[in-house]
Design brief:
Largest sheet: 4 strands, parallel
Number of helices: 8
Strand order of the largest sheet: 1-2-3-4
Structural class: alpha/beta
Radius of gyration: 18 Å
Order of helices and strands: EHHEHEHEHHHH
Distance between the termini: 37 Å
Strand content: 5-15%
Helix content: 40-55%
Length: 162
């Protein structure tokens, strides 16, 4: 069983001492979606369980998390642009720091583009741009406007992601 730390959605933040206690009771790992890299580092230094698995819940922190010991990342962006996350992961594992930094910053730019509107609507739109017909978003989510869609297409093309 994994703990899922997502204080932005739950209103509760799992503190490092509590995570260590959960680990000592048998918790296998944590997916941390707090966007708090200093706290993630505290997790790594406070959890005493040897085989505890640390996963970061956003590709925005892929590079700093993997460098210090995270085993992986649950990447929302990979739903539509998996190649970017895989390439960044591979560069980090190969210790190609220049490429890893370049790709991490590209991920940050792509995230910014994807978050101009509903991220669900943006995902549907980008998948269609990539030739993957996933249908239409369902209410209460609205599709992107033509302007939003055009913006995403232009910006992702500028990053060579489309």
């Amino acid at each position: 069983m994994f703990a899922y730390n997502n204080p932005g959605r739950t209103g509760f933040n799992i503190k490092p001492r509590l995570l260590n206690e959960l680990a000592s009771l048998g918790m296998a790992g944590v997916k941390d979606s707090s966007y708090n890299i200093p706290q993630f580092y505290e997790y790594l230094t406070m959890v005493e369980k040897e085989d505890f698995i640390f996963v970061v819940g956003t590709e925005a922190l892929l590079l700093p998390a993997l460098i210090v010991g995270a085993k992986g990342c649950i990447s929302g962006l990979a739903n539509v642009l998996p190649e970017l996350s895989v390439e960044a992961y591979d560069a980090i594992m190969e210790k190609n720091w220049e490429k890893a930094v370049e790709l991490q910053l590209k991920i940050i730019k792509a995230r910014r583009i994807m978050h101009i509107a509903s991220s669900i609507s943006a995902c549907y739109t980008v998948l269609k741009m990539r030739g993957i017909d996933v249908g239409m978003v369902k209410k209460p989510v609205s599709p992107l406007t033509k302007e939003e869609s055009d913006y995403i297409r232009t910006e992702l093309k500028a990053l060579s992601l489309l």
